[in-house]
Amino acid sequence: MIRLWRSLLIISSFVLFGIGAFVIGFFIFPYISITQSGLEKKIAYANIIHKVWSWFKDILQKIGLIKINIENEDRLKNLSSKIIVASHPSFIDIVVLIGLIPKSTCFAKKETLKNPFFRNIVKSIYIINDMDLDKLKIETDKFLKEGFNIIIFPSGTRIKSGEDFKIHKGPAAIALNSDSEIIPVKITADYPFLQKGQPIYDVGEKVINYNIEVKTPIRPLEYSDMTEIKARKAISEKIKEEII
Length: 244
Known about the structure:
The chain is an alpha/beta fold. The protein is built from seven helices and seven strands, in the order H-H-E-E-H-E-H-E-H-E-H-E-E-H.
């Protein structure tokens, strides 16, 4: 009975999430687009998503589905122009991180532009990840210079606990290009939660501990004596070491 109740709670939560995305994409963002412009508009978009997703993560905690535990939370405060690289076990990882980190953006798959609920949100404030590396460097450098934080899952997809994965060198290339610090974040849970291939209704019978460990920043300047290829490899290895 408890499992059924929790299943209904998570399904209801995502219905609410979808309704919220619809309202933001079709009403709030269009209003912002005609009342503001330039950087002010982008910041307004980011602030709306941050506040709404922060509220959503709090709802998941208040109804007893998860408990978010953050180690070294002070390292997430007052972030500006940082690259956050995180492990990616759960569907809600990006929601939680953007809910925690103001003025942030992330990579989005091109396919999300076909989703009627999220299309306007994605094209307004997120970075489509199907461009080549040179264009990606230019686009991300622009966001970082404007003070935005960029959240990246270097595995490229959700990874189950204990599963080996390859770290894409994109985050290292972006950091070296912009000379921006990388903040590694390790995310784990004590119950498989919204993992790849897992039914959305499978949330167990008790509160899930959703753990976020914020690691020591990785500074590109520390790799300045290497060639770019060697620096990318070294930084990528350091990222994997910190988040697995």
